[in-house]
Amino acid sequence: MTKSTGILSGYRVLDCSIAMAGPFAAQRLGDLGADVVKIEPVTGEWQRHVSAGGAKGNRINVSFLSLNRNKRSLAIDLKSPEGKATLMDLVKDADVFLQNYRPGVAARLGVDYETLAKLNPRLVYVSMSGYGESGPYLNHPGQDLILQGMSGAMLSAGREGEAPTAAGQYLVDAVAAYTAFEGALAALLHRERTGEGQLVQVNMLDAITNIQMQELSVFTVAGKPQARSAEPHAHVYIRAPYGAFATSDGYIIVAFPPLKPFGEIIGEPSFLTMDDETDSWAQRDHIFARTRERLVTKTSAEWLALFRAADIWCGPVYGYDELLKDEQILHNKTFVEYDHPTEGHIKTPGFPIRFSKTPSRIERGAPITGEHTREVLAEAGFSEDRIEKLLASGVVSQGEL
User: Fold this and answer.
1) Alpha helix (H) ranges present in 92-234?
2) Which secondary structure element, helix H or strand E, spans residue 335, and what is its range?
């Protein structure tokens, strides 16, 4: 096993999660140096068999590849008595246990917090769900788009009367992943101070609601209605103009500029006598429409140069191809590249947190199913004979490159 030098080196995480939110949270822990053991069925985790975007890969599809780097795979049948006993032995020395089973499944499998805490009182147990561990939505599917719709966020942008538009990323999954990651770190800090583990519960509905702290407070405290405009204004609680606008050769973002200098640059006389704090709200549709009409007369580069010279907030609208070529992205080394034994050369987003003394790095790419079964069990003290019997019985499986 490669020795990690990351900031979480020495911590063992048992990742029993599936799909995106749980694996993404566990991957973040692995990126920081934790030894993340992905506990998956002998046939492989669900995400191995579902290819987002139709990107199947060679032996590992891109969805799984993107969410499971810096992990080792232990393939095990948790429904069998021997498989359950094997996991229990691993729990005794683990630091974090992460799962996003449907409510009730962990208890049926005998891997709920109460059971595992008896084996290991220092265990940080992270339980992720769609809507919480109880309540009327207990059995509703916790799917990203469904929760985007429930969150209210979709009605903070776009045109009045038109269907809301979903975020361009799996927003709720990502927010829930980072929330669980944050919870795991906080609970580990508490354990360092007190010696005690605890249950950490994260649900997707609360996570996506909580990041709207400012917007929802404007609604609940100030009583400002969430009223969309006739024009596709980018956020109901920010003054006009605010949104993406077409130019002669693409799109740019303009973010609530002072109206007089903005009007002078784009050649719109009606803006010159407007008050930023009153007219930019009262005449939001007019301002948006006139901005849209004026901006199609020049290229994106021309407008960005003019606006930046006047200190007006603006920016390009990128596709992924432009994003990858952006000079700041290149300077930041935002993307990382490495070679995977079955999938070839990989280029993916890297590490969003930078540490001067304990930098994150890729120790390994996403594993094939059961690639590290023998290694993990041997490290946990399982005899060679016991490992062979588990393999022969099918309770665990071992993949080979």
Assistant:
1) 105-109, 113-119, 144-151, 171-194, 204-210, 213-220
2) strand 335-340
- Asked if residue 106 is part of any domain, the answer here is yes
Rounded Cα–Cα distance for residues 350 and 89 (Å): 33
Same structural domain, 31 and 152: yes
**Series of mean pLDDT values for 10-residue runs along the chain (401 residues):** 83 97 98 97 94 87 96 97 97 98 94 98 97 90 91 92 90 97 97 97 95 92 91 93 94 95 98 96 96 97 97 92 93 94 95 88 96 97 98 96 86
Please tell me what DSSP assigns to residue 305: H
Domain boundary among 323, 352, 384: 323
Please give the residue range of the domain that contains residue 316. Answer: 242-323
Q: What does the chain come to in residues? A: 401
Q: Which H or E element spans position 295?
A: helix 284-295
Q: Tokens for 235?
A: 């956020």
DSSP H or E run through 288: helix 284-295
Residue type, position 248, single letter:
S
pLDDT in tens, 210-236: 999 999 999 998 899 999 999 999 999
According to the model, what pLDDT value does residue 236 have? 93
Round to whole Å and give the CA distance between 53 and 74.
27
Longest dimension (CA), the chain: 85
**148 and 208 Cβ atoms separated by less than 8 Å:** yes
What is the DSSP code string of 253-295? EEE---HHHHHHHHT-GGGTT--TTTHHHHTHHHHHHHHHHHH
Report the distance separating Cα 82 and Cα 119, nearest Å: 17
Task: Give the model's pLDDT for residue 163.
Answer: 81
Distance from C-alpha of 15 to C-alpha of 201, rounded to nearest angstrom: 15
> Do residues 381 and 248 both lie within one domain?
no
Q: What pLDDT does 212 receive?
A: 95
Interatomic CA distance for residues 205 and 173, integer angstroms: 10
SS3 assignment, position 306: helix
Contact (Cβ atoms closer than 8 angstroms) between residue 71 and residue 398: no
Q: What is the pTM of this model?
A: 0.90
